[in-house]
Amino acid sequence: MTEIAALKAGLLADIEKADTLERVEELRVGALGKQGVVTALLKTLGGLSPEERQTRGPAIHDLRQGVTDAIAMKKAALEQAALDARLASEKLDMTLPVDVVPEGSVHPVSQVMDELAEIFADLGFAVASGPEIEDDWHNFSALNIPETHPARAMHDTFYFGDNYKVTDKDGTPRAMLLRTHTSPVQIRTMTSTSAPIRIIAPGRVYRSDSDATHTPMFHQIEGLVIDKGIHLGHLKWTLETFLKAFFERDDIVLRLRPSYFPFTEPSVEVDVGYTLVNGQRVIGGSGDDDEGGWLEVLGSGMVHRRVIEACGLDPDEWQGFAFGTGVDRLAMLKYGMNDLRAFFDGDLRWLRHYGFSALDIPTLSGGVGA
Ligand code: DAH
Question: Going by CA atoms, what residue is nearest to atom 5 of ligand 1?
Fold first, then answer.
């Protein structure tokens, strides 16, 4: 055996015996590294005579190739073995019983707010919000409820003391209060973004009132559309489409009754028909049927031109409609709850009974007629 063949046999035997990646690396450096034996032989090629190069050249190149291949194969084999060992030691027994972690549920109010946002998103509405501590300009004046208006008294407003008044840019003092409705978000949206506008604004509102159907804090949702050429027909279609998706029924019948809100003209109250099923009111069908009746679900109307003007828009150019309703009330109607106070008691038994799983949200496409 030539000296090169002997060197190759020795190196290959060492590589074959190597049982760790570190050892393989050590051998690689010893053979192919800068000071390695194979590298040293390669360096001698330049000083050889052409005849010597003809015989030793191929042998040295064959040595380098053989050692390189053997190292690569050994490395791959050791890495595979390490992976196999890891997989074997990390085996999971899928048949073991799981630890049961108590799971929370989604509160009906959160559920209904998510449902509303989802349905109106499908109709192209964005979600807007505003502060719960409001000033009386946004909560009343800009909504065409001036200081002497009886509607201010009807709202049972929680006012902050005189110390908390803020002063307007033009020096007029503004009383601070807990917003009595979500309608100020209409004003905040109209004054901060440019028309056209399509928003809903769900949120908490406050009134000094408490009995089985009233709590001092409750939830409303406001809707606002401002665009050109908007009329009552758009309002009716939007509300009908929304209520069908929300109640997940195609047979929703609406009744629009003339009404009065300072911020809309004309104003309408919207009733939905219900049918009595085993003595229970179930939303759907015409309320004029023998076994039926009407339930008021929304206040709405065409945005009053004074409101549009107060927000700096030209009412001859921009029109729109608005609506507002109680989220808690919608939840009660849809899911058959009868005491509003239970919503805010935090009684776990009630929450376990009426709570929702996080994935349970009907959409417009999934809700109507599905
Ligand atoms: N803000 C009214 C309330 O709290 C509800 C309402 C009625 C809102 C008519 C509207 C509307 O936007 O057009 O009773």
Answer: 324
User: CA-to-CA distance for 291 and 274, rounded, in angstroms?
Assistant: 8
Ligand 1 contacts CB of residue 299 (under 6 A): yes
* Spacing, Cα 124 to ligand 1 middle (Å): 21
CA–centroid distance, 300 to ligand 1, in Å, is 6
User: CA-CA distance, 168 to 170, in Å (whole number)?
Assistant: 5
Q: What is the pLDDT of residue 369?
A: 34
Question: pTM of this prediction?
Answer: 0.71
Please indicate whether residue 67, judged by its CB atom, sits closer than 6 Å to ligand 1.
no
- What pLDDT score does 182 carry? 98
Q: Terminus-to-terminus CA distance in the chain, angstroms?
A: 84
Using CA positions, which residue lies closest to atom 8 of ligand 1? 324
Write the CA distances from 221 to 37, 99, 109, 142, integer angstroms: 81, 40, 11, 19
Of all protein residues, whose CA lies closest to atom 2 belonging to ligand 1? 324
pLDDT in tens, 151-208: 777 778 999 987 777 887 777 888 899 999 999 999 999 999 999 999 999 999 999 9
b or e along 331-361 (b: 16 or more beta carbons within 10 Å of the residue's beta carbon)?
bbbbeebeebebbeeeeeeebeebbbeeeeb
301: left (phi over 0), alpha (psi -120 to 50) or beta: left
213 DSSP 8-state letter: T
Closest to 143 in 3D by CA, of 180, 117, 116, 195: 180
Q: What is the pLDDT of residues 90-148, one digit of tens each?
A: 888 888 888 888 778 889 999 999 999 999 999 999 999 999 999 999 999 999 998 88
Q: Which CATH superfamily groups domain 108-132+179-345?
A: Bira Bifunctional Protein; Domain 2 (3.30.930.10)
For residue 183 and ligand 1, the question of a CB distance below 6 A is answered with yes
**Number of CB atoms found within 10 A of residue 108's CB:** 23
Q: Which of 226, 257, 323, 329 to mutate to test the pocket of ligand 1 (most atoms within 8 A of CB)?
A: 323
Residue to mutate, 120, 180, 183, ligand 1, most ligand atoms under 8 Å from C-beta: 183
> Are 77 and 15 in contact, with CB atoms under 8 Å apart?
no
- Domain ranges for the chain, please list them: 2-86, 108-132+179-345
